[in-house]
Design a protein that fits this description.
heterodimer; A: alpha/beta; Rossmann fold; six-stranded mixed sheet; three-stranded antiparallel sheet; 24% helix; 24% strand; B: Rossmann fold; 2 domains; 12 strands
């Protein structure tokens, strides 16, 4: 079995602070210390988020391969379920339509899923213009590797607030968050 | 065993076990994603009673790391019982550096005040909240209050405000005045004075709220719109003592009124002890 965090307590703490900063300031890219020896298909930022946030209390859906699933089962102990039942999702391939994930209810919107997506690249300072809570004026972020039509479906879903799902976009050791409140404008 | 566990004298780093921290951390992230919405969490028993800031302590324990510098205030003061005990607690179980200076702190746990000094991007403000539900005096059933939040129906709160203004000519609450967060959720700012309400609006720091007994966590991300509940023709006006601080002379800081002798003499002094010290130096 490939290893998880070197220091269970302090590595989880520093990863959480990066995740919290990311969620509080949508579109800002945070850096996670590199990890070696991860299972095939899992990258450091996404793996660190799983180790920090996912456990036996959080049903998980993933499209990752057998080795990664075994690693998650061993280190996190999360039950693997279908997308519609998952509190967390890990997407290593193409992002499925957001409607397949849980979006909570108006009374308990926190039941909406947290979707961790491995994308090809995150480039701050260009691309999308993001606005909403956590953003002083505008944050810019280019995300390579999301399906076509993502922005349109995201913007359509925003109308159902407070229901919705929240994304962590991960690439290598870098991550950015997209809470359900964030508004995306595509730049021309 | 983690090095941090050994250093903390047998306790896990920052007292809470890792499973509890994960649960609280998930609640914090959802809180930030849904600004002003109360997230239920499984509050643990802490080595101090409910009402002494167990919600705030659990939040602080879940975010705190060895690189943080912690400040704890109780009504603005660093040197009161509650603040001193909580600061000592984290020195002992997390070995973190502590400070009384607002400018130097990365995490500030507070009971009922927001520091006078402008908070910055690297800072997190953790509020100890006794009653997270802003509707609780108006709708005692939590199930019903949850539905009103879901519907965004805050007419009860508006009505209460109207009655206060009709009877007294002004809003009745000088502290704990409810706010609208991002135009969607009515939120209790915890019992901070109305004077502090405007500091919630578009704050550069992350604001986290924890209620231990009521088992709720909520949050306001930076730069989020936070408006005190009011009417167009009766705008929210925070109260401020007319007298200057007896120590530093400040006119625009929030004051405590203190009895100074046994003949009814009284003076006003800054509630924020660090701010007062800065002014005096």
């Amino acid at each position: 079995m490939k290893p998880g965090f070197h220091d269970l307590v302090l590595d989880a703490q520093s990863c959480f602070r990066a995740a919290m900063e990311a969620m509080a300031r949508p579109g800002r890219v945070q850096e996670i210390p590199p990890t070696e020896g991860l299972p095939n298909g899992l990258e450091p930022a996404a793996a660190a988020l799983l180790l920090t946030l996912v456990d036996a209390d959080t049903p998980l859906w993933t499209d990752a391969g057998e080795e990664a699933r075994g690693w998650i089962a061993f280190h996190c102990g999360a039950p693997l379920v279908r997308p519609g039942e998952a509190g967390f999702a890990l997407v290593t391939g193409a992002l499925p339509p957001l409607s397949r994930f849980r979006d909570g209810s108006d009374e308990a919107p926190q039941d909406g899923a947290t979707v961790i997506v491995q994308v090809q690249d995150l480039v701050p300072g260009e691309g999308w213009r993001l606005s909403g809570p956590g953003i002083e004026t505008k944050h810019r972020l280019r995300v390579n590797g999301l399906p076509e039509g993502f922005v349109a479906s995201w913007e359509a879903r925003r109308g159902t607030f407070p229901r919705g799902m929240d994304l962590f976009l991960c690439s290598g050791t870098r991550l950015a968050a997209m809470p359900r409140t964030v508004r995306i404008e595509e730049s021309v | 065993m983690s090095a941090a566990v050994q250093e903390a004298g047998g306790y896990n780093f920052a007292y809470l076990d890792e499973a509890t921290k994960r649960m609280i951390r998930r609640a914090i992230l959802k809180g930030l994603a849904i600004p002003g919405h109360q997230i239920p969490f499984g509050a643990r028993e802490m080595p101090l009673p409910y009402g002494w800031g167990t919600g705030g302590i659990q939040l602080t324990a879940s975010i705190l790391g060895p690189r943080d510098r912690l400040k704890v205030i109780d009504q603005g003061a660093d040197d009161t019982t509650n603040a001193v005990s909580i600061r000592r607690f984290f020195q002992r179980v997390a070995g973190v550096e502590v400070t009384t200076r607002t400018a130097e702190a990365t995490v500030i746990q507070t009971r009922h005040r927001i520091p006078e000094r402008h908070l910055t991007e690297g800072q997190v403000l953790v509020f100890q909240v006794p009653m997270p539900e802003p509707l609780f005096r108006l709708e005692p059933r939590l199930t019903e209050a949850r539905r009103l939040h879901a519907l965004g129906d805050y007419s009860l709160a508006q009505l209460r405000l109207y009655e206060d203004i009709a009877r007294q000519g002004e809003t009745g609450s000088s502290y704990n005045h409810p706010v609208m967060v991002n135009g969607r959720y009515l939120m209790s700012p915890s019992p901070i004075p109305g004077y502090d309400n405007p500091k919630l609006h578009r704050s550069a720091a992350i604001l986290l709220f924890g209620a231990g007994r009521e088992k709720k966590i909520y949050a306001v991300p930076p730069w989020t719109e936070v408006r005190s509940l009011d009417f167009d023709d009766h705008p929210f006006r925070p109260m401020l003592a007319a007298a200057p601080c007896a120590f530093c002379g400040s006119r625009d800081s929030y004051k405590d009124e203190i009895v100074s002798d046994d003949r009814g003499g009284r003076v006003f002094v800054c509630s924020d002890t660090d701010h007062c010290r800065e002014n005096q130096s």
